[in-house]
Write a structure and sequence with these properties.
Thiol Ester Dehydrase, Chain A; six-stranded antiparallel sheet; 4 helices; 6 strands
């Protein structure tokens, strides 16, 4: 007899494996992003922007800010060990990020069901709100952690 575990139980049971998969995300590693917190439906990460991440005006490029927000969105939505893929995002850039000043992104699950989930993401630097993102994922039926443990 197989027992069906709920999402939080799967997160708790497979936490180390899930976190390692999400920490090893190649693009995040390429940019130097660090996953600092992972909970059921939540994630936090940080990045210290360097000269390569600036735009023509000397501030952090919007693509870098988006990438950090997208990384915590991916981590939060995949935190249950179930494959989730982005469907939509809406980003609001509020203030400029600065070279060398740590950007911190936090994602929080707003609602989820069997197939969809919605998230709110904030990116801050030194307690200043830099950007917000609202995002939705499609939750596939595939788990990237084994279910027979």
């Amino acid at each position: 007899m197989t027992i069906q575990l709920d999402d939080k139980a799967i997160h708790d049971l497979h936490y180390n494996e899930i976190k390692q998969v999400l920490k090893d995300e190649p693009f995040a590693a390429f940019l130097g992003m660090k996953l600092t917190n992972l909970g059921p439906g939540t994630a936090e990460a940080e990045l210290v922007p360097d000269d390569r991440m600036l735009n023509a005006h000397g501030t952090v490029h919007g693509a870098i800010i988006f990438s950090l927000a997208d990384y915590v969105f991916a981590a939060a939505s995949n935190s249950y060990g179930k494959t989730a893929v982005g469907v939509t995002t809406n980003v609001n850039f509020i203030s400029a990020g600065k070279r060398g000043r740590t950007l911190t992104a936090k994602a929080k699950e707003i609602k989820k069901n069997h197939k969809l989930a919605w998230y709110k993401i904030n990116v801050q630097s030194e307690n200043e709100l830099i950007a917000t993102m609202e995002a939705m994922v499609y939750r596939k039926s595939h788990y990237f952690v084994k279910q027979d443990k």
